[in-house]
Structures are given as structure tokens and as C-alpha cells.
Design brief:
Layout: E1 8-13, E2 18-25, E3 29-37, H1 39-45, H2 50-72, E4 81-87, H3 91-108, E5 112-116, H4 117-124, E6 142-147, E7 152-159, E8 162-167, H5 174-184, H6 191-199, H7 223-233, H8 245-270, E9 275-279, H9 286-298, E10 302-304, H10 308-311, H11 316-329
Parallel strand pairs: 1-4, 4-5, 6-9, 9-10
Antiparallel strand pairs: 1-2, 2-3, 6-7, 7-8
Helix pairs in contact: 2-3, 4-11, 5-6, 5-7, 5-8, 6-8, 8-9
The chain binds 5'-O-[(R)-(carboxyoxy)(hydroxy)phosphoryl]adenosine and zinc ion.
5'-O-[(R)-(carboxyoxy)(hydroxy)phosphoryl]adenosine binds near residues 16, 150 and 285.
Length: about 350
């Protein structure tokens, strides 16, 4: 499908707990980016409740889409394409976004693509960010690390819209491990930012923790690391375990970061990547940014992290990924379905 450099794409994202819509020009320039977060609501339950999430998406979706169009000062007639996340994610949440997008496609006659959420996260590195921060240079192949609450994936980026899965987690995702550990340490939800805050006053070498290595391919495993911390904390309780919460948080954060950096650098070296791009909610973590930048520099590689507003779930990344997907593969028809376990091609 031929899309012009000025082609406007409306992106819709409802895979998890953010209801988001955005307008992106030419797969690169963010014109509007609206995110309605459900974080506070889920913090009340200590995590995401799928049924609550999908109901909230249904309540918010129309208003969020309309405000994305309004903020971009465009109408439906100005758009060239609709892009919606079709997986991976929570099935009820995905269904809200995909059903809405199909409705809009039917009503407007606009072409539609169903986008892989992970492809969206990868594409966020190449977006012109608000505030004028430079995106990652288009140097390929690049190695992408996508670390979020649902995923810890490594992808080889052969070009924009050409992504291949080369590594994944055997068990928990990095963000999931941080979220569960934050709960164990009484730090609340979402766990990643809470652990990062607590870790600022802690010593990352105070508590000895493993750096699990599956020795197979470029695989992560965080379940054992989490269990190691449980074994330290649970026998005598948090107050009497002999370590402060900041020390526990800093040591755990460092162990997660070390595993992410080790596999990303190994994969980048193996595939002769020219740069490393890091995306997903965990990419907002300052310690990860520092350690990855240092390790990549030692290998002669540059590394890029999108601004924090583009690391967490948003629809600008979905619109951009949709633009490149439609360019390579064309639009899809209305039989396109959600797939809660959708993966990148390997
Ligand atoms: O990409 P995202 O918004 O949603 C998913 O697709 O999962 O990522 C959310 C995850 C959560 O696990 C959250 O704890 C983690 O990203 N996260 C962080 C930070 N900010 C968010 N982890 C570590 N440090 C942060 N600053
Ligand atoms: Zn995500």
C-alpha cells in the first residue's frame, strides 16, 4: 500500500490498562498523543484486574479518540489509515480497541491494520518525540530490547516495520518481576517506578542475588530471581530479614538490569547490530539507561531510549507501526481478529 510521507494515521491502543489514541504523520511525527491511564484504579487492587480494565476502555474509548482528533486539529476526512493493537494483551481489553477501530473503518471507509503491540514499542524509538528530542538514527540492523509488564523480548530490527523475534523470557517479564517484588516489599503498584524510587537510598550490592542465565539463546528468566528475594524476606518478615527496603529494592533492580543488559549485548554482538534501542515501560528506568549505555559503549555501539512518555503504552507507537506495516503488507479486512498471544515473526 502506498502511503505518502504526509499520510496521517490514527492509532488506537487498549491492550492493557491505558486507553490511548494518537495521530501520527508519515509514520514519524506525533501530531497528537492522548493517553487515559487506569493506573490509579488498578493501584487500588494492587495490580490489573482484566474485567475492570476492559469496562473502563469501553467507557473511555470514544472520548479518547475524539480528543486525539481534536488535539491534532484533523477530521476523519484527513486520515489515510486506522491502526489498532490486535495483540498481545488482555483479550477483553484488545476487543474494545479492535471493535471500535472496525466500527470507525466501516463508518469512514478508511483502510485498517491490526498491529502487534511489541512492534509498536520498537517503533517508538524512531518517532520524533515531543519536545524535539532526536529519535534513534535509522541504522540497521538494530537490536531492540522490549521490557514491559507483559514482555521481555529481544528483536532484530532489519528496517522500519521489519522486526524478528530473537529472544524472550521463559517465565516472568522484567516489569512483572519488578511489580511482584514491589508488592513483597510493600511498595505498591506499579512496582517498577516504586522500586526505582526506593532504590535511590539503597546499596545495590547489599543483598546477594543471582543473575539467572538459561545458557540457551538469548533467553531471560526472572522467576528464580524473584524467588531468591522471597527466601530472604519471608522467613522472618520484611522488618526482621536483616536488610532495609532500599537495599532490597536497589539490589533487586540491579539484578534485573544486569540480566537485561547481558542478553541484549550478547544478542547485539551476535547479530552484528549497529545500535541498541530499548523500549517498553521498564525502559523508563534510569539505572537500566545508565548500565545499558555503558555496556553498549564498551562494545562500540550506541544505545537509544525513547522519552519516558513513549516508553509506556501509547497509541503514537501503534499509529507509526501501522504506517510501516501497511506500507509493507497492505491493509487488512474487517475479519482481522484479536490475538492475546500474538508474537513477532521469528
Ligand atoms: O509498557 P508498559 O507501560 O505496559 C506493558 O505493556 O506492560 O510497561 C509497564 C511496566 C510495569 O511493569 C512497570 O512496573 C514498568 O513497566 N515500569 C518501570 C518503570 N516505569 C514503568 N520499571 C522500572 N523502572 C521504571 N521507572
Ligand atoms: Zn506495552
Amino acid at each position: 500500500m502506498q502511503l505518502s510521507d504526509a499520510g496521517l494515521v490514527l492509532g488506537i491502543e487498549t491492550s492493557c490498562d491505558e486507553t490511548a489514541a494518537a495521530v501520527v504523520r508519515g509514520g514519524r511525527e506525533i501530531v497528537s498523543n492522548v493517553v487515559a491511564s487506569q493506573e490509579e484504579m488498578h493501584a487500588h487492587f494492587g495490580g490489573i484486574v482484566p474485567e475492570v480494565a476492559s469496562r473502563r476502555h469501553a467507557e473511555l474509548i470514544t472520548a479518547v479518540v475524539e480528543s486525539a482528533l481534536r488535539e491534532a486539529s484533523v477530521t476523519w476526512h484527513d486520515l489515510a489509515l486506522l491502526a489498532v493493537t490486535r495483540g498481545p494483551g488482555l483479550v477483553g481489553s484488545l476487543l474494545v480497541g479492535v471493535s471500535a477501530a472496525k466500527g470507525y473503518a466501516l463508518a469512514t471507509g478508511l483502510p485498517l491494520v491490526g498491529v502487534n503491540h511489541i512492534a509498536g514499542h520498537i517503533t517508538s524509538s524512531f518517532l520524533l518525540a515531543p519536545g524535539g528530542a532526536e529519535p534513534a538514527p535509522q541504522q540497521f540492523p538494530a537490536l531492540a530490547l522490549i521490557a514491559s509488564g507483559g514482555h521481555s523480548d529481544l528483536a532484530l530490527v532489519e528496517g522500519l516495520g521489519r522486526y524478528r523475534l530473537v529472544g524472550f523470557t521463559r517465565d516472568d517479564a522484567a516489569g512483572e518481576a519488578l511489580d511482584k517484588t514491589a508488592r513483597l516489599l510493600g511498595l505498591g503498584y506499579p512496582g517498577g517506578p516504586a522500586i526505582e524510587r526506593a532504590a535511590r537510598d539503597g546499596d545495590a550490592s547489599a543483598v546477594e542475588l543471582p543473575r539467572p542465565d538459561t545458557k540457551e539463546g538469548f533467553e531471560f528468566s526472572f522467576a528464580g530471581l524473584k524467588t531468591a528475594l522471597v527466601r530472604i524476606v519471608e522467613p522472618d518478615g520484611l522488618e526482621h530479614c536483616g536488610h532495609s527496603v532500599p537495599d532490597l529494592a536497589a539490589s533487586f533492580q540491579q539484578a534485573v538490569v544486569d540480566c537485561l543488559v547481558r542478553e541484549a549485548i550478547a544478542a547485539a554482538t551476535h547479530f552484528r547490530a549497529r545500535q541498541i534501542v530499548v523500549a517498553g515501560g521498564v525502559a523508563a528506568n534510569q539505572r537500566l539507561r545508565e548500565c545499558m549505555t555503558d555496556a553498549a559503549r564498551r562494545k562500540g555501539l550506541s544505545s537509544y531510549f525513547p522519552p519516558k512518555s513513549l516508553c509506556t503504552d501509547n497509541a503514537a507507537m501503534v499509529a507509526a507501526a501501522g504506517y510501516f506495516q501497511a506500507t509493507h503488507q497492505g491493509p487488512q479486512d474487517l475479519s482481522m481478529e484479536v490475538d492475546s498471544a500474538l508474537q513477532l515473526p521469528s
